[in-house]
Amino acid sequence: MTNTPKLDALNPRHKKFVLAYCETLNDSEAARAAGYADRREGWRLRQREDIGAAISEILEDFVMGKTELLARLSRDARADMRDFTHVSPVSREFWTPARTHPEVRELAASRKLHVDDLDDYDLEGHFGAERVAHTADGVRLIREHVIESEVVIDWQKIEERGQLSVIKKLKKAKDGSVEFELVDAVRAKELIGRHHKLFTDKVEHSGDVGLVIGIDVIPPEGVRDDA
């Protein structure tokens, strides 16, 4: 952060507080960063005229101007997950108990047998030997193979395009998958539209709104108004 005249005029500890406050915008955190044990000291320091002036001088550079604000809103309005995600097929295999497998039940029904009466020959003939197995206690299993679609996030592309700020919420699930939510693009478009006066708010009043209208009556020439 660039030094400013008012910042340079402070002692080292106060300067450290000012810089920490401008980074965090938090009195307590800035006070701790400057070495103060009492977190309430931050509020007291910020009331000092010299420290307050130094903070204001630095923060002026961080205030967002109209052009930057509209640019950021425009970026949010154009946020599209297709810019940095793609759908990728994922192959997954798992084993299912044979007696609860739908195809095994259909096979047994077609032969008018109970599922437990089907032997390995029946199952291997239907599914293939490589898809039939047994557990140590003799439970027969059927191997399933499915292809699912998975949304893959290209984090490198997000960073290269400077679009990390359009991600409003990021959450990692227990299975390792990542859920994310983008900023409200519709709201951003609405704010831009209001700036350009594209929308007109219509206000309707009903009932007694306490409006008094005064009317001046000008009588025709030659007619007295007290007649």
UniProtKB/TrEMBL annotation:
InterPro entries per UniProt: Terminase_Gp1_N_sf (IPR038713), Terminase_ssu (IPR005335)
Biological processes, Gene Ontology terms: chromosome organization
UniProt name for this protein: Phage terminase, small subunit
Superkingdom field: Bacteria
Organism: Deinococcus peraridilitoris (strain DSM 19664 / LMG 22246 / CIP 109416 / KR-200)
